[in-house]
Design brief:
alpha+beta, two-stranded antiparallel sheet, 2,3-Dihydroxybiphenyl 1,2-Dioxygenase, domain 1, 10 strands
Length: 163
């Protein structure tokens, strides 16, 4: 399951919505990212493992992640003391070039932007940009370059926050 890219693509909308997209080439889809704060990690892991019919691809004492191909999503949960529910949404780029494209989209979309740059968060080394939309929803655009042994790295930085 890990590392496999689906052969199914999505059509890029380059024309008005009223024009058919059937003549546009297929492109590889980036991976949707959803991060939830949960009260009880073990209970939530059992629930989502059953729901997805898959065990987490990464499991730590305070974190679990499923890299699913159907649907193509990076779904993660982290045990926190408060503020349960959706922590943030995001789009995971497969390459640094895709991240650059996402950053261009973020600039065009507006909102409050934070270019976090290289960071360690959620047991991964990543390059990140955050944007908060008009409703206050935090969106993360990121490219992961490797695994990390800690949730936040050596520095005590805010992990998974747009500020």
């Amino acid at each position: 399951m890990l590392g496999a890219r689906p052969t199914i693509g999505v059509r890029r909308r380059e024309t008005p919505a009223s024009i058919s997209l059937h003549n546009h080439p297929l492109i590889a889809m980036k991976r949707m990212h959803v991060m939830l704060r949960v009260k009880d990690l073990d209970e939530a892991t059992r629930f989502y493992s059953s729901l997805f019919d898959a065990e987490p691809s990464k499991r730590k004492s305070d974190y679990a992640k499923w890299m699913l191909d159907d649907p193509r999503v990076n779904f993660s949960i982290a045990e926190k003391d408060e503020g349960f529910g959706i922590e943030h949404l995001g789009i995971q780029a497969e390459t640094p070039e895709e991240l650059a494209e996402l950053r261009e989209r973020i600039d065009r979309a507006g909102g409050t932007v934070n270019d976090e740059g290289e960071t360690t968060c959620c047991y991964a080394n990543s390059e990140k940009t955050w944007v908060v939309d008009q409703q206050g929803v935090s969106w993360e655009a990121f490219y992961t370059s490797g695994e990390a042994g800690t949730y936040r790295g050596d520095e005590e930085t805010a992990c998974c926050t747009s500020a």
